[in-house]
Amino acid sequence: MTRACGDTDSVAVGRRCGAGDFFAPIPRAARRRPGAPDRTRPETPTMIRFLALALLLPGLAVAQPQLSGTPDELSAFLEPAPHQAFFTGRAEETAYSDRAIVEVIVTTEAKALAEALQRNQRHVAELRERYRDAGIPPERITAARFSTSPQYGWFGREPSAYVVANRLSVTVDGEDALIAVARSADELDQVRFGGLRFEHSEKAAAEARVRAAAAADAVAQAEAYGSALGLTAVPVRFESQSAMRAPSPGARRAAGFLEEVIVTGSASRSDYAERPAQPATFDETTYSAEVTVLFEIRPAGGPDGDG
After folding, report:
1. Over 50: is that where the pLDDT of 15 sits?
2. Which of 38, 40, 223, 241 could make a disulfide contact with 291, Cβ separation 3.0–4.6 Å?
């Protein structure tokens, strides 16, 4: 098919058109290779739908929820934790110390170890007899610690003497017995004061009572708030608890006075007799407890609440 020179849908090739200087144009369709798609045709509707779907798929993938994490975290996401609240209860109880533990040290010295031991045993036996006469039962006098130590001279290789120390622990439940033990340390050269502490004989029961009272105080607070707000507080667990025994300042002053009298000798023997009579109690001890309880808060009258 012969086409005229100057057609607009043709391209120039290497043959002349007539005798002029212009090349004869050849149609674009004639330049396609066999089997190649026709780029001059408009896009089909199928191609347009494919491109639109490709653009939408990433957005749909991002919009889907993703669950990841530990089993506990997934459980908390699927089953949210109930509403919870902490309430702290406090309680205090005052009791009187009804006994004291006094320690005395019996020390003897001799050139031979056997002689030092015999002297120490003799002084301990005399001391036990003295305490028994003051009304202290023998079972309340126990040996706490026993030690021996050789003494050497400046240039000697063999011990020049032996020192034996026997520490006794005496439990007394009245001031008369306490004064008797103090006098023994003041009057006897072989006996010296080793320490003093006050105790409450029913401390375990007092600690249990004060903890229970603190827990009851926490429950009472939760019930009061729940009643005012129309909620029910159910105790779940104890978060923390503590109890302690704190001797009063009077007890510490009494121990300090006794130690000052025996160790430094700042009071004479007559001071014991000049002291006025006191009740057979030493001083007071304060037991305190603090209990923190975790409560689960539920609607009152609901499926999980009371009513």
Report:
1. no
2. 241
